[in-house]
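Subject — a protein and its fold

Tokens — whole-number codes for backbone shape
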Amino acid sequence: MNSILNGIRVLDFGRFIAGPYCAALLGQMGADVIRIERPGGGEDRFLAPITDLGEGGMFMQVNTNKQGLTLDITSEKGREIVRQLVKTADVVVANMPPEVLTALGLDYETLSSLKEDIILVANSAFGNQTPYANQIGFDGIAQAMSGTNFYSGKPGKPMRTAVPYIDFSTALSATLGTLAALMARQKTGKGQLVETSLLGTGLTIANSLLIEQAVIDANRVPTGNQGQIAAPADLFKTKDGHIVVQIVGPYIYKRWAKLMGDPSLLTDERFKDDISRGNNSQIVNDIMSNWTMSRTTEEAMVELAEARIPSGPVLSIQQSLDDPRVQALGHLKPVEYPGAPRPAPIADIPFQLSETAVGVTQRAPTIGEHNQQILSELGYSDADIAKLVAEGIL
């Protein structure tokens, strides 16, 4: 099967997650992706190291299916190499503030002067067209400013979500925008600027809460793991752990009431619909809690599955790796990496196509692994490359 983006070249100047994962997804759809980082390796390479040379798990995940090029793009010789690469490329990915893009010659105006149909994918914290465009921000900042930290915590104690879901969601949006721009280019022959922002992603994810507040002044206060617009919905303790149960809608609720063996749950006006149950959530959550505490996690899961109640065990990281449902999905692919003591379970592309090959086929590159190959294709001799190394350009 042919990959959909065969023949498309992507230059990845991204850092950390949003930009690099977008480029990785394009690579997993068949694009030729070159990751460009500073000599010695970018700062995102060494977060939470797990290899002999210090590469981290996040780097391994978001840089699959790429070639690796080290380059000092602040130097004139480095910029000349960038200009040559841009002329061979279709897409440039860069999550930097606009002033930095301009200073490095990676802004859309400069890139399009080199190649008219180039597509620039620019990820920022607060939007490139706002007064806050040049402010630096990370996933946690967007979580906090979109209201989700406040809503996810408890009164007086907001809670950050540990996993960087806004970064990854922004990468998915950037990938979608890139594909749309490539489709538009097929029709018009023109490139364009694709922009995403972490704050925009956070506001999108939290939008239903923002809508409710703006329209009816709900003024909700945080309740931790406990749901507010339907119930029972919470993390519930069992004899040997915890499970999550989420009851939403009349049909699932009826099945749950039957499982609890209490007909009054179907006639009590306090529980007549989702919002009423949410407003009286402590009562039904207590019923659910008493039920789960009398069972082991496995016993509870069997009964809930038989009753077709949405539920799942709360797993540790190791338990998640070992869980038969996780293993059956086959989503985590064991990938060898130089210096790692064992294969890394890399998440595959988050969708599959029946007629088109997509997915992780290549580990993330080591530092400057493809310098020789990439520069040779641009016409640099071995002596030229050796000189650039000696000068600290590569």
Notes: The chain is about 40% helix and 15% strand. The mean pLDDT is 96. Residues 165-188 form the longest helix (24 residues). The radius of gyration is 25 Å.
